[in-house]
Amino acid sequence: MTIKLSSITEQLCNAYLALKDKTEVEAFLRDLCTPSEIKSMAERFEVANLLMKGFLCYREIHRLTKVSIATITRVARFLLHENYGGYKFVLKRMQTSKFLLDRSEPEEFTAEVLNDQLYQTFLLFSKDEMTELYNFLLDICTPSEIKSMKERLQVANLLQAGFLAYREIHALTKVSIATITRVARFLFQENYGGYKLILKRLGDAGLLVKAENSADEDNVTTLHG
Questions:
Q1: Residue 122 has what DSSP assignment?
Q2: pLDDT, average across residues 75-87
């Protein structure tokens, strides 16, 4: 499936493609996403893993993972019926790389273990696989989650570029002051360093979106209806 990406969407995909190891993925996601968003992505990927392995009884998956039936149903729809193919692409590569968790093993499936599996997924894409990466984001995230990630990264870009007046950033991006404040905290005060790492890499590669393009069209809503 060919998708025409906006410049803001390309910036987000380039950010993920610039990550080089699991530590960098973790740092970036901790800055970019809320803990509940990371937890949701990790859970959805594990549900997709179980569905691909033949755990077709939703109640069995719910018993193993404690993930809601509604979420399991959503993952099944995107894995088995939608045509993005992101889950299938990543699951095949994870299986080849032997990074997939096995529920038959007696290992504790803690949040940390599931997060580690999630972090590995973002290291599977080569530089020329932006479409495949975006397809994976379309499968594993809701449209609002993708929109939030794009907005937060663009706000971090503007803050780093010296747009320190929150109302100025709000006027350019239409992002709420509360979100801008959160991004500023993770960019300047928290010690994960994910934003700074990615902004430097994208800046060095000439891949940062300029301020005048910050209100670029959001294609996620269009794609999902």
A1: T
A2: 94
Cβ-in-10-Å burial (0-12, 13-18, 19+) of 115 comes to buried
For the segment 93-139, what is each residue's pLDDT rounded down to a tens digit? 998 877 888 766 555 678 899 999 999 999 999 999 999 999 999 99
pLDDT tens digits, one per residue of 31-42:
999 999 999 999
78-52-46-98 Cα dihedral, nearest 10 degrees: -130
Instruction: Please calculate the CA angle 134-126-45 and round it to the nearest 5 degrees.
Output: 50
- The residue behind tokens 């449209």 is 143
- What sign does the dihedral 90-93-99-101 (CA atoms) show? positive
The contacts found for 196-204 with CB under 8 angstroms, 24 or more apart, are 196/160, 197/24, 197/27, 197/28, 198/15, 198/18, 198/19, 198/28, 198/153, 199/156, 199/157, 199/160, 201/18, 202/11, 202/14, 202/15, 202/18
C-alpha 195/C-alpha 111 separation (Å) is 23
Any alpha helices (H) in the chain, and if so which ranges? 7-17, 22-32, 35-52, 58-65, 69-80, 86-97, 111-121, 130-140, 143-160, 166-173, 177-188, 194-204, 219-224
